Amino acid sequence: MVMDTRQHVTLHRTLMDPELARQISALLESLGHAVHALQDTGRTGVDYLISDNIPQTFATQQWLNATQCTVHHRSDLATADHEHTMRLSIVATQEQIDEAMEKLTARFGSRIVTHNIVVPAFDLQLLEIFDPAVNKWEGILHVARHHGIEPSQIIAIGDDVNDIHMIRHAGLGVAMGNARPEVRAAARLIIDSNADDGLAQFLEKLSSGQLRVQDPAR
Prior knowledge:
The chain is of the alpha/beta class. It has helices spanning 18-30, 41-44, 58-67, 94-108, 136-147, 164-169, 181-186, 198-207, and strands at residues 2-4, 9-12, 36-39, 48-51, 71-74, 85-91, 113-119, 124-130, 155-158, 172-175, 189-190.
């Protein structure tokens, strides 16, 4: 989703196929997971639809409280209409996520893309499932085309697996020092970690002309 936050308008969104979303939800619910279906809040008035037929874990409640999202409980998401669903997710342990990813890959293959996101601040792990066309780089390109900006003029900075597409394709792909190994491998430049104010230092050097975009990764 690409949002104009000043006008509170959705400029672009990529939805999941509703039938595919129902099938994925049925599989995840059969494994004992309460499924979160991310919605276009401007259209539905809520951030997530959530399975109500499975008890929420403490980790799930932590995640919902941390994100301060609004939710609508459904008896199950295997029969929901999913008219505005953009992403499905679960909050689970690494072992549970590995099991779910194995079964999802076996059944749906290239029809989906998955991200295993670690949230250290809350000791949580998320499994996110999208339509294969969804990634941050596509969202960035939508904004860039609107403003006449070439891909070669874009600097993309990230630290997790959902940042790899944009880091790999941007004019300059930058990984934080605390980034996951696969993110660092995709980047042309690696800067200091969040704990060491790496982003602030990078932006100051860039804006003052001390850093050239062709500098190699260090």
